[in-house]
Write a structure and sequence with these properties.
Length: 402
């Protein structure tokens, strides 16, 4: 068996892994970034909605996304559109973006191993993780590491093999077609709610260019046993709701993925090991978006791993600043978002029709903060106390937990 030694071994070439690898390498570490697929983002498992302020902060180039400035919602008997003057949301070209992030990690000095599937974990006599074993074109490679970063997404392959975590039990399952459309308002996204669209979740139309969009359905598991792929085909074939306004639809590519939905329940540092991105469950439960957290906390993981290696102490205690930093940044916001998610999951079709009237009272910025789960304490207090509409005040009081 071939043996390679690195300071940091990152498992998974998604946004979390590439970001962790880049920052660890920038901080002087030797880094292996291991991806099981033939190419980075060979399979797309995400809709790619994110926010332009984050995109700019991460240095992702303009050609990687389609800007969005209108946010439409529809329920069985209601529909609202909130419009902004400038685009603050975006739908990513997922392949371009993920490949850009991985290339940047490589340019910072990380060695990228594609077609390399991690299947076993190397442990010392105390059972601590000291690397991984992966198979690449029938060759087994031992990747020894001082710190392993588990950025393997939903699979959490390293933490699971070590017995630290179980398979996620509560998660979203999403099916989506990238389609060519005859007609499209390409700066307007649709979220579609109610039983017909999804019995526990929502359906969407996210434009990716002037004449292409992603149409998808997300369904909460184990809340509903409806298959999102079957429901998606029914919605497209029967041209339900705003899908009928797209005219002729040509399916180009199918995407399918799973995303954890258990809040921030997981411990994310162990001796010599950090979990990041979906592997750590870092997702906004309102729209199950995790890309920006994966990138941001991937960077924190890379930074903390490099500092621990420099200090010659990669114990759990030494890696704990990673967990402290990401929890400090999002924990209270995610806890508020979980309350909204619980409210939304329980709504009947009629209640959704009314909920849209409340959403319609929000300004574009208020709506964006809401959907982004950007529930800063002072903003929330202001909305709960001073918003001119009583139903909005009630919504924000509920989010605050009063
Ligand atoms: C249907 C759906 C729609 C979504 N829509 C959005 C959205 O609109 N906006 C948003 O922000 N988020 C969205 N998400 C969530 C988003 O995709 C994730 O939060 C994000 O991709 C997490 O990044 P990651 O790097 O942690 O994991 P991933 O992107 O899943 O990357 C993990 C990588 O690890 C690799 N890997 C796994 N096992 C191994 C192994 N054994 N050996 C080597 N490599 C391995 C995988 O091949 C993969 O490349 C969606 C998710 C789903 C399922």
């Amino acid at each position: 068996m071939k043996e390679l030694n690195f300071d940091v071994v990152v498992v998974g070439g998604g946004p979390a892994g590439s970001s962790a690898a880049r920052i660890a390498a920038k901080n002087g570490c030797t880094v292996a970034l291991i991806e099981k697929e033939k190419e980075i983002a060979e399979t797309v498992r995400t809709s790619g909605v994110t926010w332009i302020s984050d995109i700019e902060e991460f240095g992702i180039p303009n050609e990687c996304y389609n800007p969005i400035k209108k946010f439409s919602f529809c329920s069985p008997k209601n529909s609202v559109t909130i419009s902004d003057n400038i685009a603050k949301a975006a739908v990513l070209d997922v392949r371009k973006t993920y490949r850009f992030l991985a290339k940047r990690a490589q340019l910072s000095g990380s060695e990228v191993f594609t077609s390399t599937n991690v299947s076993e974990i190397l442990k010392n006599s105390s059972g601590e993780c000291i690397g991984v074993i992966a198979k690449s074109q029938d060759i087994e490679i031992k990747f020894k590491a001082r710190v392993v970063i588990d950025a393997s997404g939903f699979a959490s392959i390293v933490a699971r093999e070590l017995g630290y975590v179980d398979q996620w039990k509560k998660f979203g399952a999403g099916a989506e077609f990238e389609v060519k459309t005859e007609k499209l308002e390409y700066d307007n996204w649709w979220l579609m709610v109610g039983q017909e669209y999804s019995p526990a979740g929502y359906a969407w139309i996210f434009p990716t260019s002037k004449n292409t969009a992603r149409i998808g359905v997300g369904i909460g598991k184990p809340d509903s046993d409806v298959d999102p792929t079957i429901r998606l085909n029914e919605l497209i074939d029967n041209k339900i709701g705003p899908i009928k306004d797209l005219g002729e639809i040509e399916k180009i590519e199918f995407h399918y993925g799973l995303i954890p939905n258990e809040g921030l329940a997981r411990k994310t540092v162990y001796d010599n090991l950090i979990l990041v991105g979906d592997s750590a469950g870092q997702a906004n439960p309102l729209v199950l978006e995790g890309i920006r957290y994966a990138i941001r906390f991937g960077e924190v993981a890379g930074k903390v791993a490099a500092a621990a290696i420099k200090n010659n102490d990669t114990s759990e205690k030494s890696l704990m600043p990673y967990e402290k930093e990401w929890r400090h940044s999002i924990e209270s916001k995610i806890n508020s978002a979980v309350k909204v998610q619980n409210r939304w999951v329980g709504l009947t079709d009629k209640e959704w029709d009314k909920e849209l009237n409340i959403i319609n009272e929000l300004t574009a910025d208020e709506f964006l903060d809401f959907i982004r789960a950007d529930f800063g304490v002072s903003k929330m207090l202001k909305l709960a106390t001073h918003h001119p509409k009583m139903n909005v005040r009630q919504l924000f009081n509920m989010v605050k937990g009063t």
